Amino acid sequence: DTEVTQTPKHLVMGMTNKKSLKCEQHMGHRAMYWYKQKAKKPPELMFVYSYEKLSINESVPSRFSPECPNSSLLNLHLHALQPEDSALYLCASSQVPLNTEAFFGQGTRLTVV
Amino acid sequence: GESVGLHLPTLSVQEGDNSIINCAYSNSASDYFIWYKQESGKGPQFIIDIRSNMDKRQGQRVTVLLNKTVKHLSLQIAATQPGDSAVYFCATLLANAGGTSYGKLTFGQGTILTVHP
C-alpha cells in the first residue's frame, strides 16, 4: 500500500466554522507533512511531524492546528479561517530521517466563504 | 532565502519527441535536487532525484542533469507520451534544516508540459 489518503476531498466552510482535515498512511512512514498549494503555485510547507512530534511549524497562523494522534494519522484542525486560506491542502509522508521521495495524497480542496 | 525557479512556465511537445524541462536554483547548500510531477487533480509524485555530488542520473525514460557551476537543473524525458502531460516541479532538499533529522523540501514554480498526440 503506497497510498496517502486524505478526507474530505472537498470542503466548503464559513469563517466561523470549525472543521478538520484528515490524512492516513500505512507505509510505516514516520514523517508526515502538511502543505498548502494555491492555484498554479508550488506546494508550500506548513508543518512537519517526525515520530509523531511536531518538528517544524513554518510560521503558520494559529487558526491552523495540526495533530498527529499516531504514526498513521495526521489531522489539520481549522478554525476561524479567512477567504485567502482557500487552497488545496496536501498531506505527505516519507521515511525518516531523510528521504527525497515524499508520497502525497490527492489533497483536500478547501473553500472558505 | 532559498528559492527555486524555472526558465519557462509552459512546454508543448509532440508525442514521441524528447522533452527538456529546466530549473534554476539559488541555494548551493542543497543536498539533493528532485523532480516531482503533478497531474491534474492529484498530489505531486516523485520522479527522480540527484545528490549534490553527482552531475547526472538516469531513470526509466528520464535523465536529470545537475550543473552546480551555473546552479542549473534539468529533466529530460525521452519519447514523451500523452501521459507525461502534467506540471513538473523541481525541488531542493536540505538534509538537516534547523538541526532536525528531517529534510526540508522546497518546491520551485513549476512547468506545464503538454504532449500532443
Blueprint of the fold:
The complex is a heterodimer of chains A (113) and B (117).
Chain A lengths: L3 E4 L2 E4 L4 E8 L5 E7 L6 E7 L2 E5 L6 E7 L2 E7 L7 E8 L8 E2 L3 E5 L1
Parallel strand pairs in A: 2-11
Antiparallel strand pairs in A: 1-3, 3-8, 4-5, 4-9, 5-6, 7-8, 9-10, 9-11
Chain B lengths: L3 E2 L4 E5 L4 E7 L6 E7 L6 E7 L4 E3 L3 E6 L4 E6 L8 E9 L9 E4 L3 E6 L1
Parallel strand pairs in B: 2-11
Antiparallel strand pairs in B: 1-3, 3-8, 4-5, 4-9, 6-7, 7-8, 9-10, 9-11
Q: Nearest-angstrom radius of gyration of chain A? A: 13 Å
Overall 3D geometry of chain A?
globular
Kindly state the mean pLDDT of chain B as a whole number? 88
* Helix content percent band of chain B: under 10%
- What Rg of chain B is obtained from the alpha carbons, in whole angstroms? 14 Å
- SSE topology string of chain B: EEEEEEEEEEE
**Helical percent range of chain A?**
under 10%
Number of strands of chain A: 11
Mean pLDDT of chain A: 94
- The string of secondary-structure elements of chain A, in order, is EEEEEEEEEEE
Q: What is the count of helical runs of chain A?
A: 0
What is the percentage of strand-forming residues of chain B? Answer: over 45%
**Largest interface summary:** A-B, 28 and 25 residues
Number of helices of chain B: 0
Alpha-beta classification of chain B: mainly beta
The end-to-end span of chain A amounts to: 36 Å
Detailed description of the structure:
The complex is a heterodimer of chains A (113) and B (117). With 113 residues, chain A is mostly beta strands. Chain A is 0% helix and 57% strand. Chain A has no helices and eleven strands. Chain A has strands spanning 4-7, 10-13, 18-25, 31-37, 44-50, 53-57, 64-70, 73-79, 87-94, 103-104, 108-112. In chain A, strands 2, 4, 5, 6, 9, 10 and 11 form a seven-stranded mixed β-sheet that branches. A four-stranded antiparallel β-sheet of chain A has the order 1-3-8-7, with no helix packed on it. The model of chain A has no long low-confidence stretch (mean pLDDT 94). Chain B has 117 residues and is mainly β. Chain B is 0% helix and 53% strand. In chain B, strands 2, 4, 5, 9, 10 and 11 form a six-stranded mixed β-sheet that branches. A five-stranded antiparallel β-sheet of chain B has the order 1-3-8-7-6, with no helix packed on it. The model of chain B has no long low-confidence stretch (mean pLDDT 88). Chains A and B meet through strand 5, strand 9 and strand 10 of A and strand 5 and strand 10 of B.
